[in-house]
Every structure is written in structure tokens, then in C-alpha cells.
Amino acid sequence: MSSVREARVALYALPLALSCLLPLTAAAQSGYRAKPIRLVVGQAPGGATDVVARLVAPKFGEALGQTVVVENRTGAAGSIGAAFIAKSAPDGYNLLVVSSSYAINPSLNTDLPFDPVKDLAPVTLIAEAPFLLVVHPSMPVKSVKEFVAFAKARPGALNYGSGGNGSSGHLAGELFKMLAGVDMVHVPYKGAGPALVDVMAGQVHLTFGSVLSSLGHVKNGRLRALGVTGAKRSSGAPDLPTIAEGGVKGYQTTTWYGLLAPAKTPRPLITRLNTEFVKAMKSPDIVEKMSGLGVEAKGSTAEEFAVHIRAETKKMRAAVNASGAKVE
Fold first, then answer.
1. I need a surface site. Which of 49, 164, 184, 318 has the fewest CB within 10 A?
2. Of the CATH numbers 3.40.190.150, 3.40.50.1220, 3.40.50.300, 3.40.30.10, which one belongs to the domain with range 37-129+255-323?
3. Cα dist. 63→59, 68, 97, 283 in Å?
4. What's the pLDDT tens digit per position in 49-104?
């Protein structure tokens, strides 16, 4: 082939080559928008983790310029959802919203279907909130002190629901039993939402529900709150005393929420997800909404969240050992 003919072939082929590159160029310009991002929640709809995810998802989607959907995969105190995301494609479209149960489960279950350290990568700490000790309004108690006396007079007769064995609500109950010196029966559910429903229905006597999922029911009279579990009173219910103020000396526990991705998600994607999620968390409307619900909006670097998880896992292991809590 002559050099002139080669030049002509190359000239004619150039538009075809450019047309083949156009879709790739358009995709690159459109950015991270190929499909909806999935936020998996390992707890049932209506529970606090679900409320957090659904509160932040629209703002997160707005920051990224795409759709974000929340999907509930319940069971085993969030471990089923965590295992699902651990095995999902590390493409930035599969994310997991967890509660502090994530740091408790390894101490209660040595046979988890995933490795909490190796299979999932921290993205950011989302928020922190206390629990409320709530009972059915028909119970003849109106304070923590009255409840402790009532429970001590009926050892083993009262039951409390939680979001499942190993959930943060479960450990909150076990810690209360130990420090208050009461004997109550634990009833695990597949999520904190169903546990709350059964307290409102009078099927179980009480639960330690996150302020996020419980406070609205307290305000409408379907539940009675006796105390808040944090070290200080909640911004959402400032008139409600802490459980420690109510007479259970040393009692204090809260729950936190965070975002994780499959471990092999590329670092640049983790960085972008972190940036946009933290931006969503820091927006004034999200901060205001969370504060009104008694929740403190956080936001952290991925590295800070990794340190937080390690510290919480160590602390919870000590708490589990001290309380004697076991998978039932």
C-alpha cells in the first residue's frame, strides 16, 4: 500500500474512530451516574437505622446528581444485610448503612457470614443518638425508679424486645438488667421497628428504642418514655431525665450510624462517596431535622470512622463480657 493510500485510509477511518469514542467520552463527562445507588439497611422498615437512611438518601442523591434507593435486608441484627453488601460489586453503587450493632455482633457471634474488618470498608460516621426506655402506656409506672421497683417485685415476669440478638438495643437491655439488678426476659425481633410495634400493641412490656424511631410515638401517646440512655438529656426530649438521673447509677449507652462499602471499592470512589455524604450530612436542613429528633449529625473521614469502629468493637466486647449477654 502506498503512503498516499495509507494516509487516505487513515483519514477516512478517523471519523469512525472518533464516533466510537464518543459514548465513552459522554459517559466520562456524565460521571458517576450509570444507575441508582443502593443503600442497604440490615434492619426492618421503621427502625432507627432505616429512618436515618431514608432521611439522608434524598440529600445524598442530590449531592451526587442521581437516584439513591433504600433497600431493607433484615435479620441477624443487621448481619444479613452486611453480608449481602460484602459480596456485592465494589463499584460504588452498593453501600451499607449500619448501627452500632455492627461493633457488637463480632463479640456475640463468632460465625458471622462475613468478616467485619476485611470485607467492608468504612466511608463515614453518619450520626449518634441515645435510646429511650419506653413502655406500654398501660404499665403502672411513670419513672425509672418506679419501673425498677416494679420489675424487682416480679423477677422474670417482664420482657423487653430488641432488634435482634446482638443488636444495640439488646445490649442496652442487658446493661440495664445488670446495673439496675432486675431480671427481664429478652425477646429478639428481626429489627427494632417490629419490636416497637409489639410494645405499642402490648405484646411485650418495653424496649430500648432509638430516639429516632420512638420519640414520635411517645409524643402521640402510644408509648410512655421513662428515661433516656445517654450521658445527657436529649435535644428532642429535654424534659426527660437520663436513666442515670432516674437512679440507675453509671448507666449510659448510645447508638451510632455509619456508611460502609464493599472492601474492594476503589479508593477514589470511597473518597468521593465520603465527600458527598458528609456534604449532605452538614446541610442545615439535615442538621435541623436530626436535632429535632434528638440525633446529633456527625460526618467524618473514612479513616476516622475506621478508628471509631475499632474502638467501639473493643469497648463492646468488654461490655458484652461484663453483662454476660449471649446469643440466644
1. 318
2. 3.40.190.150
3. 6, 10, 18, 10
4. 998 999 999 999 998 888 999 999 998 878 999 999 999 999 999 999 999 989 98
Domain ranges of the chain: 37-129+255-323, 130-228
For the chain, give the number of residues: 328
Its CATH architecture, for the domain 130-228, is 3-Layer(aba) Sandwich (3.40)
Burial 250-262 (b: 16+ CB within 10 A, else e): ebbbbbbbbbbbb
CA 254, CA 247: separation in Å to the nearest integer?
Answer: 18
Sign of the Cα torsion 167, 172, 173, 178 reads positive
